[in-house]
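ok so for the tutorial part 2 we go from a plain amino acid sequence to predicted structure tokens. step 1 is just haveing the sequence, like this:
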Amino acid sequence: MRVLAVVPARGGSVGVPLKNLERVGGVPLVARAVGACLRAGLIDDVVVSTDHEGIATAAREAGARVVERPSELSGAVASSESAVLHALGTLPEEPEVVLLVQCTSAFIDPDDLDAAVGRVLDGQADVVFSGMETYEFVWTGAGAGVNHDPATRPRRQDREPHYRETGAFYVMRTDGLREHGHRFFGRVAVQPVPARHAVEVDTPEDLEIVRALAPFVDEPLPIDVDAVVTDFDGVHTDDRAYVDSEGREMVAVSRSDGMGVALLKRSGVRLLVLSTERNPVVAARARKLGVPVLQGLNAKETALRDWLAIEGLDPARVAYVGNDVNDLRCMALVGWPVAVPDAHPRVRAAARVVLTHAGGAGAVRELCDRVLAARPESESPAEPRRVARPPLRVKGAPVRIGESLVGPSLPVYMIGEIGINHNGDLEIARRLIDVAADAGCQAVKFQKRTPEICVPPEQRGQMRQTPWGEMTYLEYKIRTEFGRDEYTEIAKYCAARGIEWFASPWDVPSVEFLEEMDVVTHKVASASVTDHELLRALAATGKPIILSTGMSTIEEIDRAVEILGTSGLVLMHATSTYPLPPEEANLRTIVTLQERYGVPVGYSGHERGLQISLAAVTLGAVAVERHITLDRTMWGSDHAASLEPSGLEHLVRDIRIIESAMGDGVKRVFPGEEAPRARLRRVPAP
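step 2 — the prediction. this is what the tokens look like for a chain of 686 residues:
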């Protein structure tokens, strides 16, 4: 164990009795602190030190280990450091770094924890604490300036910021804490956190503030429920109605809701629509979604209570989505009250979760995605049983492919697309693997076909000039297709070069072949997006899937994603023009796909040059795939739009430079600026 987080959580509290068990966003403060630590990638273990059984129970349920805190270390005058040192003394091994994490801070970002831990592990500091940038003037009660001269009032832009200690977390080298007995020693640095994360709970008023902020500040984590119940108007619709000259009403809904509901039903989650509205449009939409509906109700909470009893559901594992005051009683019955962002203020205040999409604009789809993110893939009567994949967090959580994690804020996953550029020659394939490995790619990709299936009947007999003489198109495809012997050699060679390999299967037998070869992932070629039989076979493997989206409409991608599921899925933006002209690259689609499907999105390019691929990385592409060749003048259809060895080497090099240049978004004065700052600033900072 290298990094340990200790959460001191006494049962006693002067300002707010049993403060650490108070719920914010439906979760006890101690569980929120534990959850933030568990989601941080660099923290190995989490311990809660407490003298209260209720806090211990909440901590264990949240996933922490519990250390019983002795009474002499549990009083109001006991220091937090004493609790940390006591917890360290109960462990069989000493961590290199220890964190003191406070329950009184309701909003702790795991990324901030990781950033602070990384600075200590890297030797940049001995202690890093959370601080909020401030330009406030501080006074004593006697009217004296603490951090300023009252006679001088410099403008904000003329002042260096101070940092207010938030109390959320302190990251320390363990040996330094033991030596000094205090949280501050050696080289101390600040981990800046935003103002919305800097509210501490010391008084009942503070508790009211963080409860009001929670729906807007909390990261959209998965919602683990067994059933979803929704109001109709204002949730499935934007709460408006269109009335024609005959007095008939029409409403607008989001088409994306339909796929979300279908995925939710397939996962086994129960659904119900409850509405006081009597208009037949409610039942019509429910029929379209395939969801039961109870409408024309005077007391929705009575109908909900009866439905929960009939279905044998635990109310604590049910979500209810509402938007107006007549939903409040239903929201009070369930464990997950949810509101749309434009809901009545009382409804937003009662919600455990406030969605980011408005009613009629994807609210239902967003909820479905968050519920699905908490559930493994399950058996569906319409499809073969899938091997369970680990659930993903919302908005592009990483996908593991072989030895690599692919996702936001991680190194771009570089794929050298060999495809059919080996021209049926195993030696050329080996040389291309060398090109990719030498350039720093993580993987190479091939294409696998059963020619007798993939070549259309009308093309099989067509004659074609090839390097091996004139032959039919079917004979040519068979001649250039690798079989078991070749791929066995490819697998061995890739293992020796330390690079992954996989392929795009074009038919179901090819999926079975690649499964026998135990590839780390499968790639869906753009041409196969609408081959639903192939997609179902791929989904049944349980492997991570990379789905290319060239030559596809958004509706075709919707259906493909519905079949494949979003767990373990990486989308690749692509335009299937060879070679690709810049005006058809449409790189902003990367962002569109990220927002619509909530999965990592990469880029598969067919352009000449490097600029478009590099731009894709700056827009958030988590993977880049480019065709590679030994020589663009070689015989074959894909060589002209491929990168030669030097081009691939430059591409990988430049992408790694871009990654380091993206930074963390925190404005600061860097070491290289200090000398010119001192030399060129005419007016020094006060």
